[in-house]
Amino acid sequence: xxxxxxxQASAGLLAVSGLSSSSAMEPIQRQGKGPLKLSLAxxxxxxxxxxxxxxxxAMDLIGFLDYTAxxxxxxxxLTSYYFPPEVTxxxxxxxxxxxxxxxxxxxxxxxxxxxxxxxxxKLNKDMExxxxxxxxxxxxxxxxxxxxxxxxxxxxxxEAAIARCIENCERACELAGRxxxxxALENHGGITAKAEDMLKIVQGVKSPWFGVNFDSGNFSSGPxxxxxxxxxxxxxxxxxxxIDMNVxxxxxPADLSRVVKILRDAGYSGWVVLEYEGKEDPFSGVPxxxxxxxxxxx
Length: 298
Known about the structure:
This protein is of the alpha/beta class. The chain has 10 helices and 10 strands. Helix 5 links the parallel strand 3 and strand 4 (144-147).
């Protein structure tokens, strides 16, 4: 199938499913209130995965899957940073097999990127990196990948960067759609530091393979991060929970029940991923956080 045939076939399937690639992003039409399911982000165990923890606590991604399974939850989110330097098909197959026998779903992945960049070699490399990891995560069966908008380049305007980010997100979504994977733009500082600016990007992207990664701990520039979370929740296709939030410039324990209620009020269903960044050792802090979230997610 050449590119023209692929685009025509995709357009037909999207039309049948009621999706359109020619209209800007609208709040997601949910099919009723579904379940919230718990997952753990590999980033939660970053020191163990990068050799910065005690030797007896070191792990690779196979060990991370085993650890996640012992928590009694159903999902694990992987991150490109913790894969070996050379990712091979046998390695991806081994991860996928191991997750299956551990009773886990690989709920998503994440890559490092900057879609605010101006055209040039650096942006081209970012797009190549995006496509490579779309293919890797597709082989693992991950439904969604977290991506980042980046920051306004020096000597550039916010408006120009937003327009460029929209265009680059659409380019990336075309690549992702070929593999049936959605890209979730995370509220992660930079040009997405404020919900208002983030929504300009989200609502401007014309692709059915796009949405928001709702990260409960990442809004810190405004007076009410909960209100900003409520603004982006209707577009969420993946949700991450942190145990702390920045409120009026001060870090404080998150009101987890309030955060989960924001998701439920928006009709969100699917994976709720713990991304642990607390001060406590993750080997004790992660299980405690999971037990806090378990009854809230039902």
